[in-house]
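Kindly draft a polypeptide, keeping tokens residue-aligned:

***
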Amino acid sequence: MTERPRFSETKLPRTFSGHRGLAHETGLIFEHGREDFSGVDIDPPQDFKPRLGGLERQSPLGLPGLSEPECLRHYVRLSKQNYAIDTGLYPLGSCTMKHNPRLNEKMARLPGFADIHPLQPLSTVRGALELMADLSHWLVTLTGTEAVALTPKAGAHGEMCGMMAIKAAIAARGEAATRKIVLAPESAHGTNPATAASLGFTVRSIPAGENGLVHPETVAAALGPDVAAIMLTNPNTCGLFERDIVEIARLVHEAGAYFYCDGANFNAIVGKVRPGDLGVDAMHINLHKTFSTPHGGGGPGAGPVVLSSRLAPFAPIPFLRRDGDKLTLVEDKEDTQSFGRMAAFHGQMGMFVRALSYILSHGGDGLAMASENAVLSANYLRVCLKDVMSSPFAERLCMHEVLFDDAWMKDSGVTVLDFAKAMIDEGIHPMTVYFPLVVHGAMLIEPTESESAAFLDMFVATLRDLAFSVKNGEVERFTGAPYYAPRTRLDETTAARKPVLTYKAPVGGREPKEA
């Protein structure tokens, strides 16, 4: 095999069109057409009396005129610039970008699920209610809890739901005025302290030990009659299982507080550990992370929250109640202790169908195997890369994600950001970088269980090649990367803080594009 030339030995040829083969240069849609030109022929309207009560548009629409092929090509080309789990490995740590089986999509499009409306009479959606009940059964069984709230629309929304239930339970005990503190580890997801603060709690940070775990004695020292809850992620954001979680839960309960578990990493322990058995009172479940519903733009999302018997009475409405063979959707508080409504309707039916399809396809043993494979994949990467990349926990078994740091890059002239950008040139989405904050120069990789051994080997080989380039002083490969993406290195800070959201044509006409 011919050795691939290093970057310094190559030079991309200039093209007149700006295209690079099938990688088409795609400018703004305003740069393709003119505002004074229409792509279709429309006769001027005859005189008519507006019926909009003075609300009709008074100025031109301001859109460029394009023919149908031009418009279609523009948006198809844009879509081809998206990176997705369907095009390649998505190793974002803490995000669990796993494959979405197409069977799930087929089920979600079945009549009776895809075409129902939340305001239909309950008598016409009995099948949908039964599906929700079946999903609820699986979720409480897998977590060892008492009840589940299906209404939250995403993980952070689920956190809000769980903490609102805790707040309601504290108020019911007459302790709302005294229990104002929520404990959160330094490695917690940023949504944890944000959720607690938004509900009026004061967040007290809990440091982790050198082994990346929260120690019971540290929690015990922070507990008191003013503490409402602890928010702990398990497995945590360092990719490690909190081995003292049972003791921590005991201490929290003895202090009269509640245990909220961030369920973002449930994908590592489904079928192996039931959080309720560990002492967890509330935990949200990201259906897109654990049960393969679409992530991000493929939403809308769903973040059900499971509740222990201590919190079940305070679940939000609406919720399902079964009387014999009859299912009812409880829509108002009345004789309940519910903290109330946090969403207009019952949840996201499409996500419920997809999640239940995934669960039933796997069964209990299959779900456990998926967890085992996720952990196996992460540890495979840990072992394959530990001789070229440093990690604060390299010698310890990790869970579903493996954490590296930047100690091995010291004095190389290459940063974690440079390394991540160079991965784009290799056709791979970068891992999560600079998180968790407790590890300097963090690089958090989560391969998930849905990647084959062959694909993981290619990923390992790619990272090793990049690592050897760093060690060999090939700085140029990294500092300007990505070189092969539609856009090269951007000033992301300025783009975020000073976004340009309105197109303004260049003075004197269009400026020629550089190839």
Q: What stands out?
A: Residues 229 and 258 are 4 Å apart (CA to CA). Confidence is low (pLDDT under 50) at residues 1-5, 511-515. The chain is about 30% helix and 10% strand.
